[in-house]
Amino acid sequence: MTTFYDVPADLLNPALADKLSGMDGISRPQWADYVKTGIHRERPPTQSNWWEMRCAALLRKVGREGPIGVNSLAQAYGGKKDNGSNPHTPAMASRHIIRTALQQLSDAGLVAMKETKTVQSVDGDQKLYSGRIITPAGHKLLDEVAHSVREAAEEAYPGLTKY
Questions:
Q1: Tens of pLDDT along 122-142?
Q2: CATH number of the domain enclosing 106
Q3: Are 78 and 84 in contact (CB under 8 A)?
């Protein structure tokens, strides 16, 4: 069976975005038409399905690198901020976009928080989390989409047939 590790992201993410657009829990917020994806960008995205593409990319990245937090994901989706005549500096992507997309994926049952331990505090027991991980339903969805895209991946990348 083909897993999502076997298929390149440029083929997996658009197919996964199409699959996510049909799900009930994944929908673009009203503010998503006007917001930039980070401070290093000058304009909002022009793609009509950019929200679903970002959710698909986040789901794949959480599946590959999880447990992973919002801050690490914001660094991964960031870029270079143009400082004019000064040197460019690293900029993080919008954590609000990433957090909202992860909350939608969590409501759809594809992503969950990984609890590390419970500590005692003045307010009572506090749970500590190490980040987000993919659930079995999310893993199954990724593998199904990867299996459906496998033939196109073998045509585009002939070296994949030996894997």
A1: 988 998 899 999 999 999 999
A2: 1.10.10.10
A3: no
